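Technical note accompanying the year-one report. For the benefit of new consortium partners, we illustrate the data format agreed upon in the data management plan: each record pairs a sequence with a structure-token string. No post-processing was applied to the example shown here.
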Amino acid sequence: MRQRIAGWLVAPALLLAIVGPGPLLAQAPADSVTPLTLEAALVEARHANARLPVANLQVQGALARARQAHGALYPMLSVDGDVHGGAPVAYASSDAFLGVVMRAPLYQGGELRAARDQTEAEAQALQAGYRMAVRDVDYAVRTDYDLVLRTQDGLAFSERALERLRTYLTVVQSRQASGEGVGADLLQTQQRVATAEADIASLTRELHSASMDLNDALGRAPDAPLRLAPLPEPTAPADTTGQPWLATPDLARTQSDIQAAQAGVRAAQAGRKLHLDLEADAGGQPVLNNTDALLNNGTGWGTEVTLSFSFPFWDHGIYRGRVAEAGAALDQAHEQDVVVRRAARLAWTRAASALQDLYGEYEARDRAAAVARDAYLQAESVYRGGQGTALAVLDAYDAWAQAAQNRLDVVYNYRVAEADLYRWGNS
């Protein structure tokens, strides 16, 4: 995108040197749409961006699963009933049951608590993922905002510069009509006009695309009207000390993934431990045909308590497989934490270093653009006095336009580095 932007700034810059920045920018048409600041855009995107509700719903689902796992630790009450028929009546009676049943897991080898811890950690991981999504949306808004501003301002400038360039073309045509040998100057100026017209068409397309991207990030319709408040010039960055990248939600997520994997290991290891369950009921058991049958569960109203246990001690590799799988998941979570930790540190350090370097480059580019503009104005003045050549003027213009483009590039790169610092810092 940056390379495409570079082309359209070259030809129109000639006219800025001739008439100065004031008249061109002052002629920009007023827009009835209230300018949108970057801060307001960030707030709007957080409320309306399409990605954030999806991430939030994932969090809500995980919290619901955590509540289920927590509830599994406690007794459950239900109303149960059944009807049983048997034959012959000497063997089994036909009876029924209706009562309130309480079931409670007394001890499951730590499996239920591990499941609770695992679902809670997974919910925390998704909450960190939601914060990551917020930062990603902020990053997209910041970079799209700057790109729209550059393209928008460049298009407005190019249109007015083209108008002045056509006026300059009229002057050259008049000199040719008066008999002066300016045929080459005329061809060069006509070529610049045609290039400027093509650049404006390309810029219009770029502006539509960039505006659609920003509108989408803001949750607006793609073709919604958009007017942005300007951003300030780069300033000297503050000292970047410490390790703010440690507070990023990316690392919070990997830490929660580790906790979830550790709970998964405990849940798998519970497969070789004693399990105790308690069940109690209170209700009635009417016998429907024969109370003297061989199999008779009882009759009348009463209560019943059952304590059951289970101690699994052998299976054909199921337990070992589950433990191995849980251990591999834990190792993977640790390794992923290392990967994300290094990536976060690199991204933040690179952005902090780039911000310092780019500000120094910005100061140098700013001075270079001013000197190149003065050099162009001097060459143009000599040409107007009849001593210079159009080629000398255009060479000076090319140098000035390139210096101006370099300045715009460094400002843009500075803003991107700022966005990177916000993304990977503790903001």
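Partners are asked to follow this layout when depositing records. The CA atoms of residues 362 and 410 lie 6 Å apart.
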